[in-house]
Amino acid sequence: MIPRARRLGLVLWLAWRSALTSPRDTALRAVVGSLTVVAVLLGCALTPTALNRSDRIADAQLPLLPATVQDRGLMASQTHDYFDGEPIEVVTVAQVGGSAPSTFEGVPVPGPGEVTVSPQLAEDRETFAELALRYPGEIAGYVPSSFLLGPHSRVVWRAVTPEDMPAGSGWLNDRGSGWLDDRGGSRNEDVRSSVPDALSYAYPVLALGFVLPLLALVAVLASLGASRRERRLAALRLVGLSDGDAKRSVALEEAVTSVFGVVVGTGIFFGAVPLVSSALPAQGGVWAEDVTVSWPAAALFLGSLPLVSVVISQMGLRSVTTSALSVERRSSSRRPGNWRLLPLALGLVVLGLSLLPAFQGPVVGSATLFAATALLSVGVTAGLPVLVRALGVRMRHGSLSALLAAAKLEADPAKSSRVAAGLTMLLIASGFMLLFFPMISESDSDDFRVAGDRLGATTLFGFQAMEANRAEAVARQDAWGTVERSPAVRAALQVRQVLVSPVGNQNRQVSILTVGCTDLALIADVAAEDCAKGLVTRTGMSALPGGSAVQAVRESDSPDDARLESLGAPFELPTRPVESDVVAALEGVANTGAEIVVPTEILPEGVPLAELPATTLISPRTGALETARTELLTRLNVASLTFDEQFRISTLSTRQYQSILWLASLLVVAIAGLATMVATHEMVRSTRPERRLLAVGGVRRRVQERALTIQTMVPVSLGVVGGTLATLAIAHGFVGLLADQGGVALVPVSGVLITAAVAWAAPAMGTVLILRTESQRELLQSPE
Amino acid sequence: MIEARDVAFSYGDAEILRGVSLDVNPGEVVALVGPSGSGKSTLLYCLGGILRPSGGSVAIDGVDLSGMSDDDLTVLRADKCGYVLQFGRLVGELSALENASIPLRLTGLSRKQAERKAADALAEVGVEHLARRKTASLSGGEQQRVAVARAMVHRPKVVFADEPTGALDSANGRLVMECLTTLAKANDTALLVVTHDEGIAGRADRRIGIRDGIVDTGVAAFQPVAR
After folding, report:
1. Domains in chain B, start-ordered, CATH in brackets?
2. Chain A, nearest residue to B80 by Cα
3. Complex ipTM value
4. Per-residue pLDDT tens over the stretch A734-784
5. Count of CB atoms situated within 10 Å of the CB of A559
6. What pTM, to 2 d.p., does this model score?
7. Residue A208 contacts by C-beta under 8 Å, 6 or more apart in sequence?
8. A2 CB near a chain B CB, below 8 Å?
9. Within chain A, how many helices (H) and strands (E) appear?
């Protein structure tokens, strides 16, 4: 008896030779595997990268002690400014007394008439004269990278006299001595722990959600590949390889290909880290060394890829006869059990439950819909063979082509359904992508983009809320609710808060809210008399998304009167404001405040407020209001932004967001396209023996083509129809759930239908193309 | 070399073999002849340990196959048997040399040793010049000669051939058969051939007729064929 190790060596050699002798198939499988690995690693890198970023944000925060604790040293204040859509971290310092240090943690402290800048800001100062004017002075030194969030961060340290220091400044101290809290009190905790644990799992789970359907397609390839090996396995068994050896040979071949894919994919990922870091939509960019991978998660996912391939290939071998004769003698076709319809039925029941009032809450409703999604995804794919067989039985009475197709569908419906199963799962995942990330398209009139703003805002607001104390988050939500329910506000407008959430960055609260003084005094720490002086503006990191409705209002001067008067008709901001007529008209408008200033005379008329997706108030500019606003903004230490700046910020972050989504989408589409192509090719090729027999028997080519197309398209059509209906139903549920919470979103009907059409057409075209490029002579002479 | 007693075999309700008994001696060339569907191929597979008889017993080189596990049967096939089937049944992705070397590697020889001996075997059947070609690209006759080399390379006790020339023209068929019989005689290997071809049956030492799953005594059975 041959030693076990040597036998295993022989099996390994056979697997290796087989992989090498089918280079095209091996390469395609490896490419699909590599791209999948890149996608998985990207998912595994997002959370650690965000955490590294969070650490940098913490490190960049200056440890300031309250002004009351000492009387000499280095006073400092940390604020933000914006230029060309990019933020600038501004540190204002003043030396009090003679004991101030010349450096702080490697940052040269500027003296009078000097500035310390980041390399990017130094470059910008040379490029833009207005920036040099804004931050004048000799460069005392450069801010080291440890203080910069990214390679393109703009940071400036400027020196002023102690008298010119802004209110709320503190004493710069050793790290660990303490920080100022929001109200000027001291606290000793770092902000490093502000990223919630739950967020650590969000990105990998999200990535896995997109990668799973692709893994299903990879599994289809492996499965089809296993069927194709029937002849080889039989030949090997004939010369004395055991059944176990034959299966091990296939498993090793799959493992070799998958491991190759993992190695190449990992190489591609790390080779592309500089590209990934520059593509991440974070202000100032991301340091390449910050793009790290969560290795436990990566090892889990990457290790599972070869395992999945091997397991699926072995499962595929269950339907392959591996006797030495290679003769499959089956007296009857294997009928898929009706139990396969159970997950589909369960999914429909759960989807139905989500319509009931008891399942409408934000948590229960989401959980129900996610459960329905999972069940329907699995249900449609698991139930396909049953449906395919049922249809096959009914098609037997049709034409010769239909009869030939029906025979195959009925004989092995599971095999016929494999390509469709992967496509169906991919379709549902794509539907989710369209629902949650509509900003992929840069199209001006893309409704999904607006819907995505709303849905993304609500979804991500949940994560943001987790960062704070839950009670605080609830109180904040209640406060906003009070604003919205306020009679004075409700009568005039609908106030919405919008978040733009670039991946890997802090959520941006995009809101400019103007309310009656009485209402504001009820809910916010703003004195009614301050409010009454003029316009009280509450700003976040403000910018308005395209499509927002704008209503100009005037607030009553009387402190007892909370009326808001409309000025002109509301209008809708264009989706690309920088190119619009409205914005062109705004170019001459002076900017002095954090709110948008629009002369009433340019407001277009006739846009019904209720039909617009979001509404924001703007105020006309008057002398009295301007003074009040300036006072207020100074007191609140809010940087002024021009209308143009607001939109540049918004546009820039949107573009960055779009770019990474484009990359992700292209990756997914590339993998899916390749996988579908190979799966279709494998499926068509697996029918060669039967088609050769038909050709020999004189069955015309056109009949064969038609039969094969029907055979391909019946399961694909069932899968696509089922997947589309499931996706739309689920999307409808999520949109309804969001609407209940005050959000606005659209069911991405046209996007899902377009995806479904592509998913339906790709295998059809693939089949016809493959058949058209294969001559009858080739078919007859094929060695397979 | 082969002792079969009352071998029976059924596919479901269909009785294919109904009690066949025969013996084959070392170095003997025996032709199994009979009409289509008579059960001769099934008998060959039962004798060769590929199919398990539903009744009776088969012994190869004194080893009773009944009751053996699949793995033991696999080892026995690799050790004592060679097979030549109608369409070669080679591994298309491997070269002729690699195909022929597999049985030797299963006996524990190193790759180099196995390929050296396989090259000799290919030379014996006249296809040494095709050693590096993938078998999928070979003609039917060439494939069958590689299959003969593969069947004989490890000097088995018995070779089972099922219509080895069925898919070949007469010239190639003669060539393949000549290779088979010559090597069998040279190596004292028993050769059991299923054939329809009278010419091939005529080259055998003995012919056994099979009809309706039993030995057909009407065929010049159990008598050495005159040369």
Report:
1. 26-45+70-224 (3.40.50.300)
2. A240
3. 0.71
4. 777 766 654 445 666 777 787 788 778 877 777 777 777 766 555 555 544
5. 16
6. 0.53
7. A40, A43, A301
8. yes
9. 26, 19
